[in-house]
C-alpha cells in the first residue's frame, strides 16, 4: 500500500500525488472500501478516487533517480514497437500505454519519432494516430522524469538529447 504524500503513476492518468487514504461518501461507492485520493500532477483542481485494492488499473511508485538515470542511458538499446498494420498498431500502443511501463513509453516515442522522420522525408505528415500516441507517451515519460530529476517537463527532451550525446 502506498503512503500519503507519495507520488505514483496511476494508469493513463499519469503521475499523481496521494493526498489521502480514506473511506469516501460518494453515491455508488462502497463505504467500507478504502480509497486513495489522488491529485494528478499538473491539474490543481482534479481529484481521482481509486480503491486501494484496485486490480484493474496499474499503480506503481514513481521511478527513482537511479532508475531514471539508467533509463536514459539505456534508451539507445530499447527496441522500437513497430507494427506494420495500422489497426494492430493502435492496439499495441494502447496496450503499452496501459502497462505504465516507462520502457514501453520510450519504445513508442522512438518508434514514432523514426516513423515521423520517414514520413517527412517522403513529403507526408505524421498520422493523427501516431501524433496522439507520441504526445501521450512523451507526456507520461517526461512528466515522470521531470518530477524525479527536478527538471522542468518542457526541458526534458533537450536534457535527454544532451545526455545521450555525451
Write structural notes for this entry.
The mean pLDDT is 91. The protein is of the alpha+beta class and 166 residues long. The protein has a five-stranded antiparallel β-sheet with strand order 4-3-2-1-5. The chain starts with 6 loop residues before the first strand and ends with a helix. It is built from five helices and five strands; from the N terminus they run E-E-E-E-E-H-H-H-H-H. It has two domains: 54 residues; 103 residues, Up-down Bundle (Methane Monooxygenase Hydroxylase, Chain G, domain 1). Helix 2 packs parallel to helix 4 and helix 3 crosses helix 4. 45% of the residues lie in helices and 17% in strands. It holds the Pfam family CarD_C. InterPro entries: CarD-like/TRCF_RID, CarD-like/TRCF_RID_sf, CarD-like_C, CarD-like_regulator, CarD_C. This is CarD family transcriptional regulator.
List SSEs in N-to-C order. Answer: EEEEEHHHHH
CATH superfamily of the largest domain: CarD-like, C-terminal domain
Number of helical regions: 5
Q: Which shape, going by the Cα principal axes?
A: globular
Q: What distance separates the N and C termini?
A: 39 Å
Q: In which range does the helix fraction lie?
A: 40-55%
Rg (CA only): 18 Å
Quick rundown:
The chain has 166 residues and is an alpha+beta fold. It is built from five helices and five strands; from the N terminus they run βββββααααα. The protein has a five-stranded antiparallel β-sheet.
Explain the layout of strands and helices.
Blueprint: E1 7-10, E2 14-23, E3 34-40, E4 48-51, E5 59-61, H1 65-74, H2 86-98, H3 102-121, H4 128-149, H5 156-165
Antiparallel strand pairs: 1-2, 1-5, 2-3, 3-4
Helix pairs in contact: 2-4, 3-4
Pfam family, one: CarD_TRCF_RID
InterPro entries: CarD-like/TRCF_RID (IPR003711), CarD-like/TRCF_RID_sf (IPR036101), CarD-like_C (IPR042215), CarD-like_regulator (IPR052531), CarD_C (IPR048792)
Domain CarD-like/TRCF RNAP-interacting: 1-113
